[in-house]
Design goal:
The structure is a homodimer of 356-residue chains.
Chain A (H helix, E strand, L loop, with lengths): L1 E9 L3 H19 L2 E6 L3 H8 L5 H9 L2 E6 L14 H11 L4 E7 L12 H4 L3 E7 L7 E9 L2 E11 H15 L5 E6 L5 H14 L6 E6 H10 L6 E4 L1 H12 L9 E5 L5 E5 L16 H13 L4 H16 L2 E3 L8 E3 L1 H11 L1
Parallel strand pairs in A: 1-2, 1-3, 3-12, 5-10, 8-9, 8-10, 13-14
Antiparallel strand pairs in A: 4-5, 4-11, 6-7, 11-12
Helix pairs in contact in A: 1-10, 1-12, 2-4, 6-7, 8-9, 10-11, 11-12
Bound molecules: 3-isopropylmalic acid (2 copies).
One 3-isopropylmalic acid sits at the interface of chains A and B.
Subcellular location (chains A, B): Cytoplasm
Organism (chains A, B): Pendulispora brunnea
GO molecular function (chains A, B): 3-isopropylmalate dehydrogenase activity
């Protein structure tokens, strides 16, 4: 089959990790007899430099016409002044919103060989396997009004946390569906003891739960969830939560895996198109040095094969290849704490390709 | 000297831990020659039951007339239905707001003898000594509008995250002041790459920093802060942040200490009056069993002596007594993981009193 994949390398280490992932996808194409047509487009800081726009129309158009999008990372000190009107992150947010990608899937699985690299005690991280489903196009990120004004000699800034029952329902429903083939437990995270939007979230989750008799639902407050992710991470299966809580909790949980560089994500909407990206940032301090860990992006490419292209066997082949390479002792610098040989980005990528 | 202290035992284990802390304060009175006049008032679920109001006017009046307030905890399953109009937490929020307590101080110090009880590796928690300064009367907790409405067949819920430069300035200024006698480093946490209110927060912190030439200021995004609290907690000195981020990050950081039951807090405003409470909740599952850890509340009483009554030597005497008792091997059930003898709430309290 022929599929159109848009590559958005972005900033910092983005181009390096996307390059390796493209090579992995090309190998999948050769091995399984598919044709992937790749096209590269600008986003983030790079797009501000080249197009004066963190999400040029040509990029959004290409993404809308594609079967799937693989993204590196956006942002960097060059564009970091909070007073700038145009910032790299706006490109990412506009892309999520423009494609209607309301659900961000972030699996956090601790690889047994890397558990020792975790800052947590081994018995706290062994066997951790959490799937976060973060709402991605609502809440504080997009709510209106968002403004800054002068009033009575004071400066006042406002953001709005808003959700409709519909927005909650669709993402919670997806979380229940995803829990089915897993351990059948959903934890819905909110701050219902303080927020109106959280009370709506909790009620809607409880209502949607009626459609999924075989899945267990529990509610947890965001502050206690932040604790339980450290004290008892194994007790979670699927966690579903609103945009900002999801941003914080997924980054916190990522630490369990030992390195941020390992973790993939998928942003999905109602159709099959999606944006796939590692959860790490652009890491400007190590950009261009060929030492970034491509694993998070390669595993994002595996999620792309599964969720957007329906190629389950191919996705599993990539995931197995990454596992084999890590089991063989290959590491990048960020995972070297767990022992083994530290390879460059490209050498690690080559190992994965060879293992497919 | 004679000082008026209001006790608000609240719900769950609240009455047990407040009882021990009162006994500790009485011992301080005897040893140092002060008279503390105590009066007890209702708050939270208990106040809903007795007064139909989580913060009866009589309670707020007494707190306003007091020199300081010591609180146990509020909330519990009995009052937990998110559809209830009146909830225990509202009492706590109304008290903070009613007394103008805009700064919540939460020190997280890892006791060397308890480091092994932490879910983190010992080398990650040894020497951790963080002072959180959480903004407490602004942001999503109080912003207007907060509402729920029907619109075009959808239900829509809204909370508002709002800050004025004045609100940011006063709490950030306090953080800088508190950093002075410490390691002179302030980390201001925000989400300036997404939120208007965070950009105002960051600019205001940068501006206030000019008044404190000898203190270092760094800005950090809330998601990376959630990671760094696990990977490099020792690198923090004072952390200042807005209300909701503070709620999540302080609970996360509390885990480092090995038990939530150990940690105190102080909520302060412009005057000397303040509310002092442990950071743990009402723990309804262990209420009434005389096994709750009174340490967090006793250390809150020490903060009360220091911040509201100006009794530094007395505060240090209490803190030293707690240290001595823990060093001697005394534990409550929640700390028993670190070895030592598990005492009841009251027996542990007695040991502290004896050590003063
Ligand atoms: C870059 C930033 C806007 C983004 C977010 O907050 O969503 C990032 O932190 C993420 O989690 O993908
Ligand atoms: C009980 C709740 C309203 C409260 C808060 O969120 O502020 C608590 O979690 C805390 O941190 O003191």
């Amino acid at each position: 089959m022929t599929k159109k994949i848009v590559l958005l390398p972005g900033d910092g280490v983005g181009p390096e990790v996307v390059r390796e992932s493209r090579a992995v996808l090309e190998q999948v194409g050769r091995t399984f007899g598919h044709t992937f047509e790749f096209s590269e487009h600008a986003i983030g800081g790079a797009a501000i430099d080249s197009h004066d726009d963190p999400l040029p129309k040509s990029t959004l158009d290409a993404c809308q016409a594609a079967d799937a999008v693989l993204l590196g990372a956006v942002g960097g000190p060059k564009w970091d002044d909070p007073k700038r009107k145009v910032r790299p992150e706006q490109g990412l947010l506009a892309l999520r919103r423009g494609l209607g990608l309301y659900a961000n899937l972030r699996p956090v699985r601790v690889h047994p060989k890397l558990a020792s690299a975790s800052p947590l005690k081994a018995d706290k991280v062994e066997g951790v396997d959490i799937l976060f489903v973060r709402e991605l196009t609502g809440g504080l990120y997009f709510g209106q009004p968002r403004l800054r004004e002068q009033r009575d000699g004071k400066v006042r800034a406002v953001d709005t946390l808003e959700y409709t029952d519909e927005e909650v329902r669709r993402v919670v429903r997806l979380a229940f569906r995803l829990a089915g083939p897993r351990r059948k437990r959903v934890t819905s995270v909110d701050k219902a003891n303080v927020l109106e939007s959280s009370r709506l979230w909790r009620e809607t989750a409880t209502e949607v739960h009626k459609e999924f008799a075989d899945i267990a639902l529990e509610h947890q407050l965001v502050d206690s969830c932040a604790m339980r992710l450290i004290t008892a991470a194994r007790s979670f299966d699927v966690i579903v939560t609103e945009n900002m809580f999801g941003d914080i909790l997924t980054d916190e949980a990522a630490v369990l895996a030992g390195s941020l560089g390992l973790l993939p994500s998928a942003s999905l909407g109602d159709g099959t198109n999606g944006v796939y990206e590692p959860i790490h940032g652009s890491a400007p301090d190590i950009a261009g040095k060929d030492i970034a860990n491509p694993t998070g992006t390669i595993l994002s490419a595996a999620m792309l094969l599964r969720h957007s292209l329906g190629l389950t066997a191919e996705a599993e082949a990539v995931e197995r290849a990454v596992d084999d390479v890590i089991n063989s002792g290959a590491r990048t610098a960020d995972m070297a704490g767990a022992g083994g040989e530290a390879l460059s980005t490209s050498a690690f990528g080559q190992r994965v390709i060879a293992a497919i």
